[in-house]
Amino acid sequence: MTALTLSTAAAPGLRADAIVIGVAKGTKGPVVAPGAESVDKAYDGRLAGVLETLGASGAEGEVTKLPAPSGFKAPLVLAVGLGAEPEKDAGYDGEALRRAAGVAARALAGTKKAAFALPLVDAADAGAAGEGALLGAYSFDTYKENGKDAKARGGKAPLAEVVLLGGKPRDRAFKAAVERAAAVAEELNRARDLVNTPPNDLNPAAFAAIAQDAAKANGLKIQVLDEKALAKGGYGGILGVGAGSASAPRLVKLSYTSPKAKKHLALVGKGITYDSGGISLKPAGHNETMKCDMSGAAAVFAAVVAAARLGLEVNVTGWLALAENMPSGSATRPGDVLRMFSGKTVEVLNTDAEGRLVLADALWAASLEKPDAIVDVATLTGAMVLALGNRTFGVMANDDAFRTAIHEAAEEVGEEAWPMPLPEHLRKGMDSPTADIANMGERMGGGLVAGLFLREFIGEGITWAHLDIAGPAFNEGGPFGYTPKGGTGSAVRTLVRLAELTAAGDLG
Ligand code: BES
Ligand code: MN
Ligand code: ZN
Questions:
Q1: Which residues form the signal peptide (predicted)?
Q2: Does residue 270 have a known ligand-binding role?
């Protein structure tokens, strides 16, 4: 785990492997961002010119390395692009700082300690930069040559120590912002680990066991329903999806309660530890990354633990709907009818539309507790990826104001989200001649159809939103900003923000 601290030290005297500075894109070339004055001074005030000579423009994602000036204790200065220079009197955007810090941390993999001299105006800036650095300093190498350290096998260990310069270590707001950043980033990185863990090791029981350990470590209440308890309780959706697998399904309920809570937020995550499609098998080319289909449950898990670590004054219940979707002689068939936990029956027309089936049971279970709001998170549909691309999640809700609030919360924490409708006319496409509803409807607007299906399993009068993270949950391309290849931890920061807003009485 990368350490994060604040320091008032001046850059020149600091013992570190690198000093990170910001460079912005000005109208007439690169501009050294505030926070790096002492560094610029050591280059005789010519740092912007030096950077321009080296080809730097200040563009987002750009990294320029230069030898530190004489007298510096650190050997290297790393200039990271911040994008366009803000208008006069406007500060740098939190997300620009978060991304730049992430890029710098990634570029410094293999080194131990870096001091970040970025333009931090307030505590929120320190939090954003710290969060970006810790998220950029991520690597997943559990499965690389056992027993050797990262260097020995030719890889690079993540940056071990991040020092934020220019922050105020004794200021309560700065301290709190850095603590928050560390808690959120560490839990988010844990969610990434879960997503990246191969499905032969992370089956539903293994995920539940990890949740049990985390509950113990963080003082959470936990209840795990195994296949016997699920059968006894009538959880036909979760059992139906898990029926084909040698690894039985689980429903995990994680509860964080605060003595000062006035509100209760329920979070529900899709936890398909592997989605083969079941009998409606996915073709090759569509199943290689389907270990990521538990990203929603991982995000919910991380958010509940983060809420506990932060001591938020709100009750947060996390529901992890865990199953493996496999074809076999015992698997659910297209044409089968499942009796769900809510009592409704579902005709399964396509076993690859499994996420909505496990969520339906968990949403109904969450509803029975009458929380102030329910938010579910799921890698639910390929249609959402077609609609919004692979960096934006869709937000649907049964309440317009709630949907808007979630969109705004996402934007606040630097996650790209977009509101999507739940058009009533698409509901009849799921009419079934045999059961109360089918698990598939019209192909067009498939992401919205899935949202409409989920809505059927929300208790009367409960505010609910659905986040379809199928696009951003797993990065198949190269790393960018603070986002690595593989599991991204999508939605964790938005969920933590929602818990904070609920605690403050500003949501639900
Ligand atoms: N897990 C998939 C959705 C998905 C697709 C996640 C791409 C991440 C990346 C989901 O279970 C699924 O298979 N959905 C089907 C639904 C269809 C059969 C109605 C889909 O989107 O094709
Ligand atoms: Mn599927
Ligand atoms: Zn799925």
A1: none
A2: yes
The best mutation among 359, 381, 440 to test binding of ligand 1, ranked by most ligand atoms within 8 Å of the C-beta, falls on: 381
- H or E stretch including 302? helix 295-310
d(CA 370, CA 373): 8
* CB-based contact 348:335 (threshold 8 Å): yes
Nearest ligand to residue 439 Cα:
1
Cα 94 to middle of ligand 1, angstroms:
33
pLDDT, the chain, mean? 97
355 close to ligand 1 (CB < 6 Angstrom): yes
Q: Which helix (H) or strand (E) holds 29?
A: strand 29-32
The residue whose CB lies within 8 Å of the most ligand 1 atoms, and thus the one to mutate among 289, 352, 467, is: 352
Crossing angle between the packed helical segments 355-368 and 446-455, to the nearest 10 degrees: 30
Dist. CA 352 → ligand 2 center (Å): 4
CA atoms of 318 and 190, how far apart (whole Å) = 16
Q: Which of 156, 175, 282, 427 is catalytic?
A: 282
Q: Which domains does the chain have, with CATH numbers?
A: 3-166 (3.40.220.10), 189-503 (3.40.630.10)
Whether 102 has a pLDDT exceeding 90, the answer reads yes
CB atoms within 10 A of CB 3: 13
Is 356 annotated as catalytic?
A: yes
Closest CA to 377 of 300, 266, 464, 488: 300
Q: How far apart are CA 30 and CA 190, in angstroms?
A: 37
- Closest alpha carbon to 473 in 270, 329, 310, 198: 270
Token duo for residue 258: 């605060």
Question: Which ligand 1 atom is the nearest neighbour of the CA of 446?
Answer: 19
H/E element, 321: strand 315-325
Model confidence band, residue 146 (pLDDT cutoffs 50, 70, 90):
low
Q: Residue 270 has which token pair? A: 């899709």
Q: How far apart are CA 424 and CA 133, in angstroms?
A: 44
CA distances from 363 to 5, 452, 462 (A): 40, 13, 11
Q: What pLDDT, in 10s, does the model give residues 297-331? A: 999 999 999 999 999 999 999 999 999 999 999 99
Which residues fall within 8 angstroms of residue 450, CB to CB, at 6 or more apart? 353, 355, 356, 380, 381, 383, 468
Element (H, E) at 296: helix 295-310
CB of 448 within 6 A of ligand 1: the answer is no
Tally of helices (H runs) and strands (E runs) in the chain: 14, 20
